[in-house]
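Q: I'm writing up a methods section and want to include an example of the input and output format. Could you take the sequence below and give the corresponding predicted C-alpha cells, formatted cleanly so I can copy it straight into the document?
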Amino acid sequence: MYYELYLDVLFLENLLVDYLLLSLLKEILKSPAGRLRRLLGAALGSMGVCGLYLFAIESTLAGRILLYVVFSTVMMKIGLGIRDFRTCLKAVALLYISSFLLGGIFAWIHRQVKLPFYPFAGFTLLSFWLLSACMGWLIRFRSRMESILETVVGFGGRTIQVKGLLDTGNQLRDPVFQKPVSILTEQKRLELCGSAEPLYQMIPFHSIGSPKGILPAFFADYLCIRREDGTEKRVERPLIGVTKEPLSSQKDYDMILHPDLLE
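A: Here is the clean output for your methods example:
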C-alpha cells in the first residue's frame, strides 16, 4: 500500500497553516513582525517539511529533530524576528500548543460539517478564526485579572480588604486640588465607616449615560495596594468616591483604583 504525495499541495497547505500560526503568535507575543516577514518564515518552514518528505527522512530521528527543533526555531526567528533564546523557547512552545489546538478544532469541524469534498483551506481558516477568538478572550481575561489588586482601606480605626480594579480609564480628580479619586461601592463604604458618617465633598463627573453627575467623596485614612510582584504601595489620605451602583456585574471587584496611585 502506498500514497501519492504532491509536494506542491503539501507546500501550500503547510504554508497556510504556518502563516496562520505565526499570525496568532504575533498577537500573543505582541511582535511587530509584518506580513512579508511572517510569510517568509512560513515559507521556510513549509519548504523544510517538503524537504523531509522529498528525501524520505520525515520518520527518522534526524527528521524529527529537524522538524520539531530546527525548522520551528527558524520559523520563530525569521517569521517573528525573535532573537533572544528565552523568548524563542517560549514562542516554540506556544507554536506547538497552538498547533495542537488548531488541529483539534479542525478535526471537530471536519466531523461536524459533512461535505462531499475536503475543503482544507476553508476548514483551516474557520479553525483559525475560532482559535483566535478563544485566544483573544483568554488574553483579555488574563489582562483584566492582572489589573485586579488586593487593596486595604483604613478609616477611623476600621479597615476593610477589597479587590480593586486598576482602571487606566479612570481620570476622575478633585477639581480644586486635582487629587486622584478612586471609587468604592456604598456597601463597602458602610463596612468601612460603620456608624460614623464621613465628611463628604462633591466631585463632578461625566460618563456615558450621565453627561453631568455628582459623586460624593471622602478622605480615608490610608489606602494600601498590593502590586502584582508582591510589593505594597501605601497612600495617605486618599480621596474615595462612593457609588450606589455595582461596579462589576460579576462582582469581580468592589473598587476602582485611580492609576496615578501606583506612580
